[in-house]
Amino acid sequence: MNSDGRINPISRFLMTATKIQMHEMRATLLSFFFVFVLMTAYSILKPVRDALGADWGAVGLSVAWTANFVLSVVAVSVYGLALSTLKFRAVVPGVYAFFAATFLALYVVTVSVAEPVLFNKIFYVWVSVFSLFHLSVFWSFMSDLFNKSQAPRLFGFIAAGTSVGAIVGPLMTALLVDAIGTNALMLVSAILLLVPIPIILMLERLRTTDLGDDQVHTDRAAHTVIGRNPFAGFSILFSSKFLLTIGAFILLYVTINTFVYFELQDLTKEYGINTRTKIWSWIDLATNGLTLFTAAFITSRIVTKLGMQTALSLMPGMIMVGVLALVAAPTLIVLAFFQVLRRVGNYAITRPSREMLFTLVDRETRFKAKPVIDIVLYRGGDMLTAWMFTLLAQGLGLGLAGIAVIISGIAALWTIVALYLGSSYERMAAEPLTK
Fold it and tell me: Taking the complete model, does pTM exceed 0.90, yes or no?
């Protein structure tokens, strides 16, 4: 808004094209920029990580994903300890400062490493841990910042920031890699991960001004720890039917995601690492271009007009259609196209819709149980599905068409869980508004 009280053209366009209200504009745009920076930092390194995996085969990837799961459990436990011992206002910015320090340390190690094989696997695993952790913490913060009436209108637009970052990141990689080298990209990511720290502080101020959250409650909460049990996230998860249903929803998604990822790795292993990097980059570019438009202008309308049941069940339905194409033509091009549609559905619709679910729970659940679901369950599903794929593909010789049939069955079950979860959300959201 201008100093004379008039709404500027950009704000007017956003209010017309989306469902953002004027008093939410600054917080929403800052949140958009927040996740944009995070995804840029991650996406700079993602094509390099994905290109490494094809050299190891299904067994090597399964081992790497097992290590990823173990490290994820440790990371979530340490995060829970930090929430139980440090003041809340220090924890979220501390997460990003920590990851920045680790990428700086990894860069320093590369200077003296003579044998890259072990380092490549360490890099692959740590970037994979970071890929879930940075977004889980971000969305925990978002579900704590915006209430359940705001989230359906705003989370789609905010999620579009991930697509912009996921487009800018690979472009920065392409522009910088020849000039500074692959290893120095970690320095770029480390610097970018420091940018969210002042953004978090600004959003905390906007919580009590623009968004109208209770000043006394917020100040008290910011200066206290969240619970005393660092492992409470695990017990909270298993004591809540609602959270367990979210966990089942994610596990079914992960199973399909892992099957498709492994098939892509298998079909691209005959190419050189540069060609593989280009293939993954084109998949990312197509995914994020489509996701950007969908998340910014369509997601909020799907959730508010069609309901959460529709929003959560759209992607399983899309997958069952994609599976039919895979069975008819089990080729790299069709699989890559299927991967793009699957990821667009996840990033633009399913992910922001899933994050809205956590506006209905308390702060300890958001910050302790949510990472257990987002990271530990996710990576546990990765690990189990990776070994399952190895058994089916290498042990039993099952091809892409056979894997596609299995995916179809999983998608059907996933649809049932999505409908039930959406119904539970709508019932709980109808209760009196709380923060």
Answer: no
